Amino acid sequence: MNYREVEGTREYVARLEHGRDWRGQIESFAETEGIDAAFFFGLGAVQDARLLFYDQEDKEYYPVEFDEPFEVVPVVGNISWLENERFAHTHAAFSREDGGTVAGHLDAATVFAGELYVREFETRLERTRDEVTDLDLWSL
Ligand code: ZN
């Protein structure tokens, strides 16, 4: 396990904008505030969702699309740098009217309503290609 001690004082609460992309709004916010590393979690509702499932044998992400409304049971993620852009690595669990859930790595979702808590760290986290998993992981 690789690790680094981090410190941070800036915390934010945010209300996501209706009709815009969930992850894209977090990345825009991080850009505006100059956030180079953070963790966040949130809740709310979305109108659709595009999840990506990482096939560990193929080493490829495969999309799973949902065109239906969901509750965002939680969303959790972090902000770091990937290929010269701020990237919000985001996972989510979504629930339906009957209480059933779908969950996974969130690529995109249209916000119906959303609330977010963000904790920034005063460091810069970068993702680089990991040879074992072929994923872009933190280089600590
Ligand atoms: Zn992921």
Count the helices. How many? 1
Principal-axis shape equals globular
Bound molecules: zinc ion
- Specify the CATH class: Alpha Beta
Tell me the number of strands.
10
Order of helices and strands: EHEEEEEEEEE
Nearest-integer average pLDDT: 97
Structural class comes to: mainly beta
Which stretches are poorly predicted, pLDDT < 50 over at least 5 residues? none
Cα-atom Rg, whole angstroms?
15 Å
Strand content: over 45%
What tags apply to this protein structure?
binds zinc ion; 10-stranded mixed beta sheet; 1 helix; 60s Ribosomal Protein L30, Chain: A; 56% strand; 140 residues; single chain; mainly beta
Notes on the structure:
The protein has 140 residues and is mainly β. The protein is built from one helix and ten strands; from the N terminus they run βαβββββββββ. The protein has one helix at 22-33; strands spanning 11-16, 38-46, 49-55, 60-66, 70-82, 85-95, 101-108, 111-120, 126-129, 136-138. Strands 1, 2, 3, 4, 5, 6, 7, 8, 9 and 10 form a ten-stranded mixed sheet that branches. The N and C termini lie close together (10 Å). Bound molecules: zinc ion. Zinc ion binds next to β6.
